[in-house]
């Protein structure tokens, strides 16, 4: 890392010392907490504080012993299926109490749990289920989830599928009622010895991430990593049993799962859970449930800012907001308008080895990456020059990576811990892990992980997020694989090829999807085809992965390795003063992709995308 002048080097020493102190505290906390599994902590809390509220959902309060009762029933059911330590069960459940007691019940037996995104349908859903070699699938309540499960049932073979929220008499053939089993099962407690063979390095759960393969990939989350990630809340805000943590983020993602459920269990606190985010009810919920901590992603807070101002905006008990992705342009507005005493920003990746934590609370900053900190950093982090098209490092004449200067965007790499060098990141072919690794970075034999994101340093070595690179972009809080979207669009008979990329939209975090398509020989893009395209993406892709814009181009531009060259397309976006090709937008009103005009664009951007 370029060191700059001495003034810059020492300008943030105070923050460096604070970072080091926090890291030391985090390591000590992790060492203390990692003596037991997350399920052990839950059972200890049940014994210690059985009547204490553990979960608030839809105005109902569930105590620790109430969730324990349901978790024991789930464990008894799983045992009756013949499941044992090391087996895997997939669950596809929305944010509701059954997610928590189902997860904890399976953990009682040492069963690993695959956390399926409940927005998935069709091919993506089939892939996610089959990728983990699970012994059963448990589907949460709701007609949409039931329909999604029934749609893929023929592709799941003999996999048992259990549906929550409905009794057998109301279910079609091929699936079983989980509620019938719950009703007929006694909540017998299990001795922890039933999972005595489970170690901290065994798999607790799988959390899915999208990447260059075009399909969701299940990331191994060990029991040790589960505890480590759950320590983030303690690291950032030092929470305690008197806190109530408000979570509207999906529990199938790391932030909701570990800041929310994990953080609650480490402190013996209370979790206030909502099925999905509502800007209208967010602050009302916080006041009603006496929330003290909120978990966020940047998009969530931007939706809150866009709401009309209210005299009650700052009336609450919140002492801190913990999350990722809050941009500098609204940081101060969030803090001042909603009177949040502390914003604790961090960065990490589900499959990653390291991260940033903004203990200084400098607007937009994720932490510091100074030369002083680097000397003490066991998980050495570096920003290096990179190729925008491939999201891979650029090498010098000696074949080594090149650190960036202050103010220059750089690709984030972090050194792989020796004890994890030979472990797979994903339950997928080993080459998927290898794609994330960069070898011989600075010296022969060293190995770093490529995070696929670029960051920039200011003159005081504070780190700021710059862009998401490569074959993924982020929209509506979800990572979207461009290859997955392109592959689905390419299945249409009139589409020859598709280039998919993210484009920035004013007033929105992340990037919206855009597809540049070429047509098959003799095909046309008329009303019929535009309706078929709309119907296809709505059926096959979750809402956040559906391209917002479509561009009809005469031919694709390829790289020397025959990959679609998307850099110029992404830069031009949907700028109608630059783009002369026909443009279309996702028009739910007409259930089609409709031609885009400047007037329609203005109205469309004002709508709720």
Detail the topology: elements first, then pairings.
Layout lengths: L5 H6 L1 H21 L4 H11 L4 E5 L2 E4 H17 L7 E5 L4 H12 L3 E4 L6 H9 L5 E4 L3 H10 L8 E3 L12 E2 H6 L19 E7 L7 E6 H8 L1 H6 L6 E4 L6 H14 L2 E4 L8 H7 L4 E5 H8 L14 E5 L3 H10 L5 E6 L6 E3 L7 E4 L2 H6 L4 E4 L1 E2 L4 E2 L16 E6 L14 H6 L1 E3 L7 E11 L4 E7 L3 E4 L2 E4 H8 L5 E9 L8 E8 L7 H14 L8 E4 L14 H6 L10 E5 L4 E4 L2 H9 L3
Parallel strand pairs: 1-11, 3-4, 3-5, 4-8, 5-6, 6-7, 10-11, 10-12, 12-13, 13-14, 27-28
Antiparallel strand pairs: 1-2, 8-9, 14-15, 16-23, 17-20, 18-19, 20-22, 21-22, 22-23, 24-25, 26-27, 28-29, 29-30
Structure at a glance:
With 609 residues, this protein is of the alpha/beta class.
CATH topology of the largest domain: Rossmann fold
Through-space gap between termini: 40 Å
CATH architecture assignment of the largest domain = 3-Layer(aba) Sandwich
Bin the helical content.
25-40%
What's the rounded overall pLDDT mean?
Answer: 89
- Principal-axis shape equals globular
SS strand fraction: 15-25%
Report the sheet with the most strands, covering strand number, pairing sense and barrel closure.
8 strands, mixed
Integer tally of domains: 3
Task: Give the strand order of the largest sheet, numbering strands 1, 2, ... along the chain.
Answer: 2-1-11-10-12-13-14-15
Helical stretch tally: 20
- The radius of gyration over CA amounts to 24 Å
The total beta strand count reads: 30
What are the segments in which pLDDT stays under 50 over at least 5 consecutive residues? none
Structural class: alpha/beta
- CATH top level of the largest domain? Alpha Beta
């Amino acid at each position: 890392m370029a060191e700059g002048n001495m003034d810059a080097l020492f300008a943030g020493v105070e923050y460096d010392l604070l970072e080091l102190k926090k890291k030391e505290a985090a390591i000590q906390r992790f060492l203390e907490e990692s003596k037991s599994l997350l399920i052990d902590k839950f059972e200890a809390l049940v014994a210690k504080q059985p009547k204490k509220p553990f979960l608030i959902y839809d105005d109902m309060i569930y105590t620790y012993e109430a969730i324990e009762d349901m978790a024991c029933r789930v464990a008894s059911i799983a045992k009756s299926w013949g499941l044992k330590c090391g087996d895997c069960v997939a669950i596809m459940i929305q944010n509701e109490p059954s997610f928590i007691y189902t997860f904890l019940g399976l953990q009682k037996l040492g069963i690993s749990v695959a956390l399926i995104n409940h927005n998935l349908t069709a091919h993506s859903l089939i892939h996610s289920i089959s990728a983990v070699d699970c012994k059963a699938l448990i589907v949460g309540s709701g007609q949409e989830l039931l329909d999604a499960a029934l749609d893929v049932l023929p592709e799941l073979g003999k996999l048992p599928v259990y549906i929550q929220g409905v009794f057998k008499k109301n279910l079609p053939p091929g699936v079983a009622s989980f509620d019938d089993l719950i009703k007929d099962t006694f909540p017998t407690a299990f001795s922890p010895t039933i999972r005595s063979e489970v170690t901290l390095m065994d798999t607790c759960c799988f959390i899915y991430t999208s990447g260059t393969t075009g399909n969701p990939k299940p990331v191994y989350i060990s029991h040790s990593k589960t505890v480590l990630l759950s320590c983030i809340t303690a690291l950032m805000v030092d929470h305690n049993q008197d806190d109530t943590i408000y979570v509207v983020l999906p529990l199938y993602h790391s932030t909701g799962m570990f800041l929310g459920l994990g953080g609650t269990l480490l402190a013996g606190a209370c979790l206030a859970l909502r099925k999905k985010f509502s800007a209208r009810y967010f602050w009302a919920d916080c006041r009603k449930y006496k929330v003290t901590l909120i978990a966020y992603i940047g998009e969530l807070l931007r939706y809150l800012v866009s709401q009309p101002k209210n005299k009650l905006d700052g009336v609450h008990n919140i002492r801190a907001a913990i999350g990722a992705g809050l941009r500098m342009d609204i940081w101060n507005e969030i803090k001042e308008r909603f009177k949040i005493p502390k914003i604790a920003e961090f960065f990490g990746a589900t499959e990653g080895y390291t991260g940033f934590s903004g203990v200084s609370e400098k607007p937009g900053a994720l932490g510091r990456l100074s030369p002083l900190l680097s000397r003490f950093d066991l998980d050495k982090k570096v920003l290096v020059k990179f190729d925008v098209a491939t999201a891979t490092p650029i090498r010098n004449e000696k074949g080594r990576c090149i650190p960036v200067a202050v103010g220059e965007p750089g690709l984030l790499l972090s050194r792989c811990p020796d004890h994890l060098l030979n472990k797979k990141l994903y339950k997928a072919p080993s080459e998927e892990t290898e794609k994330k690794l960069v070898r011989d970075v600075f010296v022969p034999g060293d190995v770093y992980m490529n995070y696929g994101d670029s960051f920039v340093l200011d003159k005081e070595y504070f780190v700021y997020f710059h862009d998401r690179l490569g074959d993924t972009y982020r929209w509506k809080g979800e990572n979207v694989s461009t290859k997955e979207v392109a592959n689905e669009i390419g299945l249409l008979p009139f589409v020859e090829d598709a280039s998919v990329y993210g484009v920035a939209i004013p007033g929105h975090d992340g990037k919206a999807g855009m597809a540049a398509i070429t047509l098959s020989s003799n095909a046309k893009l008329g009303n019929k085809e535009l309706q078929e395209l709309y119907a296809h993406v709505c059926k096959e892709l979750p809402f956040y992965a559906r391209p917002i814009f479509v561009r009809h181009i005469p031919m694709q531009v390829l790289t020397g390795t025959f990959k679609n060259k998307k850099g110029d397309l992404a830069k031009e976006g949907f700028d109608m003063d630059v783009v002369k090709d026909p443009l279309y937008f996702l028009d739910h009103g007409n259930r089609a992709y409709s031609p885009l005009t400047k007037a329609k664009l203005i109205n469309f951007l004002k709508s709720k995308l």
